[in-house]
Design goal:
- There is one protein chain.
- Among the domains are: about 170 residues, no CATH class; about 100 residues, no CATH class.
- It contains eleven helices and nine strands.
- Helix 3 crosses helix 7 and helix 4 runs antiparallel to helix 5.
- The longest helix has 19 residues.
- The protein is globular.
Length: about 450
């Protein structure tokens, strides 16, 4: 069993968790999500850690919020194109409200692709997630299809393309049309990620329901989705050496809503990520946690780019797991090895974080204190147990992992280090980490 000393905490990378979600800021708006939510595994979570239910009004107003954000950073020519797209397409009375949601998605995707700015990358998974919500939110009202051709409400493909061509076509038109055509691929390609991981020396997960998976128990009070039942499963691999951890989240009847799997090769220090969605970002939920099923159709690595989250935005640091080391489900047998000095993700989307680090921003921080003038004392270091990734651009890790760990679980067995206005013994390191996260 893993002991409660400092070294196992470092090896387990206690600040890293089995979630791939995206955090923004603290309050949910009533009329639009704006920036007050994060996504993981294709569902939406508020800062209160509860699932957000999306209705048509919230979906549309949130899309408009993102369009307005992109307008602020666009050139005047692109702004003109957006105005014309609104007039000729989004304000077209013949196009249904539900189909306009797809057309807004295409506009946002096109503007993000054209802008190609790191500061806007966090909007990509959010836009994808909203796209995947459209059919659910409008409950079969959409007529949008590209089989055969492109069909939108009561207008023809030629009419739609003509309208898009008229929207300062050289600015955004080609990008919009490309996104629309790619909305519904003709067929679902099979995943190739298993083979890539095997070549990279990473264990691949056995079929779900196999006796090779060891059930470790239910995870209580995790960082996110407290309303979902979360269970921990582990697979110990001898060849190649390493381990996989799975975290299914289920309804009360056992139906699987979310199933993320992360595998680490301990010799190569490479890691692979899978999720229960197709390569097109469609959630796979037609099975129960006790069922036997293959995982070969689960998207993995770069195939996850169409879903609602960026795995490596949160899974950063020494190893790819975010665990709660004092929680009973993580008291693994000594044969389960999840140690690495610094892991490398295998074939993740190029625009996603690639686990750069470790950072050296804490190396020269003076944690000494004068007991006469420093109360409470500030003389303890986070580096005794942890290494941290380069924090620039890691919105998910900063807000949903690091901040929550400092508030709730670190250091283990003691009062938390704190985050906002921290006055504890770790405060000098916390202040530097906070500054780097901004």
């Amino acid at each position: 069993m893993i002991s409660q000393g400092c070294k196992p905490f470092r090896q387990a990378a206690c600040l890293l968790c089995l979630i791939n979600f995206f955090i923004i800021t603290p309050t949910i708006a009533k009329d639009a999500l704006e920036d007050y939510w994060y996504s993981y595994h294709g569902i939406l979570i508020g800062d209160d850690e509860e699932v957000i239910e999306i209705d048509p009004e919230i979906l549309v107003s949130t899309q408009e919020h993102y369009i307005n954000q992109l307008v602020e950073t666009a050139s005047e020519k692109t702004r003109k194109a957006i105005r014309e797209y609104r007039e000729l397409v989004l304000n077209n009375a013949k196009i249904s409200v539900s189909d306009k949601a797809y057309l807004r998605y295409a506009l946002i995707a096109a503007l993000l692709k054209k802008a190609n700015k790191d500061s806007l990358l966090h909007l990509v998974p959010k836009n994808n997630l909203l796209k995947n919500q459209i059919e659910l939110v409008f409950a079969g009202q959409t007529t949008f299809s590209n089989k055969p051709g492109l069909v939108v409400s009561n207008i023809t493909t030629a009419t739609l393309q003509g309208a898009i061509n008229a929207t300062a076509f050289e600015e955004v038109g080609p990008f919009i049309w490309e996104e629309l055509i790619d909305l519904f691929p003709d067929e679902e390609p099979a995943t190739e990620y298993f083979g890539q991981c095997e070549e990279a020396g990473v264990p691949t997960p056995p079929e779900w329901g196999s006796s090779e998976w060891d059930y470790m128990g239910e995870l209580k009070k995790e960082f996110i989705s407290r309303s979902r039942k979360a269970q921990v499963y582990v697979y110990d691999s001898a060849s190649p050496p390493g381990s996989c951890i799975a975290l299914p989240r289920t309804r009360n009847n056992g139906n699987v809503l979310l199933l993320g799997v992360i595998c680490l090769g301990t010799e190569t220090e490479n890691a692979c990520f899978w999720d229960n969605e197709t390569v097109d970002g469609v959630r796979i939920t037609n099975f129960n946690v006790d069922d036997d099923r293959t995982l070969l159709d689960f998207a993995g690595g770069s195939e996850l780019s169409g879903g609602g989250g960026r795995c490596t935005d949160c899974h950063a640091g020494e190893n790819p797991f975010v665990i709660h080391p004092e929680a009973e489900p993580f008291q693994f047998d000594s044969s389960v090895d999840i140690t690495s000095e610094w892991y490398t993700p295998v074939d993740m989307p190029a625009a996603w974080p690639q686990n750069e680090g470790p950072t050296d921003i804490l190396d020269n921080v003076d944690t000494s204190y004068n007991p006469l003038f420093s109360r409470p004392k500030a003389g303890r270091s986070c580096l005794g147990c942890h290494q941290f990734p380069e924090l620039d651009g890691l919105f998910g890790y900063c807000n949903a992992v690091l901040k929550r760990a400092a508030r709730r679980t670190m250091p283990p067995g003691e009062s938390s280090a704190g985050w906002s206005g921290s006055r504890g013994e770790f405060r000098r390191h916390i202040e530097v980490l906070k500054d780097a996260c901004r």
